[in-house]
Amino acid sequence: MLFGLPNQDILYKALIDRDGSYEGRAYVGVKTTGIFCRLTCPARKPNRENCTFYETISQCLEHGFRPCKRCSPLIPAADSDSTIQTLVSALEADPTRRWYESDITKMGFDPSTVRRIFKRHFGITFLEMARHRRIQAGFTTLSSGGKVIEAQIDAGFSSSSAFREAFAKLLGEKPSTFTADGLLKADWIETPLGSMVAVSCQSSLHLLEFIDRKGLPAELKCLKKHAKGNIGIGRYPPTDQIEKELKLFFDTQISTFKTPITMHGTPFTCNVWRALQQIPAGEVRSYSDLAQSINNPNAVRAVARANGANQLAIIIPCHRVIGADGSLTGYAGGLWRKQKLIELEQRFTKN
Question: Which of 51, 68, 201, 318 is catalytic?
Fold first, then answer.
């Protein structure tokens, strides 16, 4: 790791507060029990003098601590929650099903608890996740040349107006505004971290975003201005290329991408993005380090804004920027994705 852990008192406060910003970045070993936990562990909190904080799971194990059975630190946080596992499995089994809170209740879960758990781990509720999956089915139909009515049926919507409204809420505009012959074309890509939208022209990729990013509609609107017209639904060769490379990336076979890209930003912003691409997989930097790397050490806030404006997730690795104290910081794709991407890329340094 590039950064050492912050002051142990700061970490103890994070433990007491169950602060999720250190998820995957710090663990506590409890001397009296001989176990180690996440800082978000719901178990009764130990006294300060019995706590030692470590940066990695391997350090905890090397010092003789056993993993806690309650917070399961060896398993990614979302994967260790039985509620998430059950509901996600049900969604995968029937992706076009229209879910209601009453369905969640019938499965023996409290809707408010489910809403809170999914929001904490994924940044969206379970019902929102289910809606995204249904729209994906319709998007796929449109991408293959199907009509809106066919997409509506495939997505499991009872009316065309409901489908159009849900589609517009997710992507910013109704499906009819996406043309078949756009200079740019948008298509859906599946990844282990969720669905993504890729937008490309004949020669390069212009956008790659997780479908649940709140700013996606605004980003697509900006791209329409650059394209001087509507964006189509479908794909050009760069989308096929990045889909193949993403699969290799998640299989830890490649750590860099060769798909040609087009950056849409100011000269300063593009300079920051190029600096991000210079951070090796498996390493992280702070915003201050990033500002130093572009010879503008006083532009930390501007660097942070440029980082957040990135439209090419994973390819331009803004997820490799963390807090100066080693904590996870904001990530438009969700902190849970940022944690998983950093954990994935740490494998490259071990190979």
Answer: 318
